[in-house]
Amino acid sequence: MALGTATSPYELRFDAGRICLDLLATTHPAERLDSAEALCAWIGGAGLVPEGTELGHADASWLVGFRELRAHLGLLVRNCGNSRVPDTSSYARALGRVNEAARAAPPALRAVCGEEGGLVRELADPPTCAGLLALVARDAVELLTDPVARAAVRECEGDSCPLVYLDTSRGRRRRWCSSEVCGNRERVARHRRRAALARA
After folding, report:
1. Residue 129's domain spans which residues?
2. Of 1, 26, 48, 170, whose Cβ has the fewest other Cβ atoms within 10 Å?
């Protein structure tokens, strides 16, 4: 989802380029996963389940699971630019938890005839929390073990913006999570500094 198109407080702020990075973005500018309903909206908006999938059985334990995975992913992703894996117990614990989550069976998809005659995707069974966490964790494993993708992970250079994204821009020179938000703030600040110098 592009920045600025959100119509619900639960929708994604922006598309970080990977589902695991989209999960990290749910902490900014404030906690977005503050209820099971918000989590269900995020799960749908992130594309973890086909559109229209019922998630009414999600509860507070799902919220705990996704927040815990998010914390572990944050530690791993923010250290993925290092040439060597950090030798700390917190890093090892985070890596172990992500690998453990990735082992669960993800939701199985099947093709069915849609109302308009074409084939559409639906889940073979109701999604489980463990299965959905597995999708996010596997995405993180793929990102963290792919040297090319890992090298494209960037943290926004905007003031006090903690968002992380995959830089797929030409020349890999993207500096902000969003040119319209953090980039625009930087341009305005630069303009104000120049104007202040001109007045002085």
Report:
1. 19-175
2. 170
Structure tokens at 197: 């110098």
**Residue 102 within a domain:** yes
Tokens of 142: 């793929």
Distance of CA 95 to the CA centre of its chain: 17
On whether residue 183 sits in a domain, the answer given is no
| Number of domains the chain contains | 1
Question: pTM for this one?
Answer: 0.85
Q: What is the pLDDT of residues 79-117, one digit of tens each?
A: 887 778 888 999 999 999 999 999 999 999 999 999 999
The answer to whether the CB of 12 falls within 8 A of the CB of 41 is no
Q: Is residue 189 part of a domain?
A: no
Cβ pair 165, 21 in contact under 8 A:
yes
> Long-range CB contacts (< 8 A, 24+ apart) of 179-183?
180/3, 180/4, 181/3, 181/4, 182/156, 182/157, 182/158, 183/158
